[in-house]
Specification:
The radius of gyration is 20 Å and the shape is elongated. The protein has helices spanning about 5-15, 20-30, 30-45, 80-85, 110-125; strands at about 65-70, 90-95, 105-110, 130-135. With about 150 residues, it is α+β, with helices and mostly antiparallel strands. It folds into 2 domains: about 5-45, Winged helix-like DNA-binding domain superfamily/Winged helix DNA-binding domain (Arc Repressor Mutant, subunit A), CATH 1.10.10; about 65-135, Alpha-Beta Plaits (2-Layer Sandwich), CATH 3.30.70. Helix content is about 35%, strand content about 20%.
Length: about 150
């Protein structure tokens, strides 16, 4: 990012992806057209990669969330678990991690029975061992990413 104006625009959009150009120009201290040009440049540069609605998991029928660590059954097998699991829609995120496990999955399902079925599908699709931690309560998530002060 070039400067504090870019940081202000990106932080406001991270907080509210539906912020109007008028609101962004107010935050940035620029005209609406100059702000629009900045937003377009940030999108073109890949700093802003998209906009999305954040849904209430309970309201859409997926109130149960869990973290699932996966470890290959055979350490010599190809490291392609993310590709093998991509078709499972209940997996919201897949992270490569340091430690005993290879990947950490974040999943959302409707019920304990659905979680059990998902774990079975994960084990079968990727030939992995799993370790599951069920989330009891979430205090915050999807917090806005604040740009680093130095822009890097």
């Amino acid at each position: 990012m070039e400067d504090a104006v870019d940081q202000a625009i990106t932080l406001e959009l991270a907080r509210d992806g539906r912020a109007t150009l008028a609101r962004l120009s107010e935050v940035a201290g620029l005209s609406v057209s100059a702000t629009q040009a900045r937003v377009r440049r940030l999108e073109t540069q890949g700093i802003i990669v998209g906009y999305r609605a954040v849904l209430d998991a309970e309201a859409v029928g997926r109130p149960l969330s869990a973290f699932i660590e996966i470890t290959p059954l055979d350490p010599g097998q190809p490291d392609n678990a993310p590709e093998l699991l991509e078709h499972l829609a209940a997996i919201e995120a897949c992270h490569s991690i340091a430690g005993d496990a290879s990947y950490m999955l974040f999943v959302r399902v409707a019920s304990p029975r659905d979680l059990e079925a998902l774990i079975r599908d994960i084990r079968s699709a990727a030939s992995v061992n799993t370790r599951t931690t069920v989330v009891l309560q979430t205090f915050y998530e999807s917090r806005p990413i604040a740009p680093a002060p130095d822009g890097g």
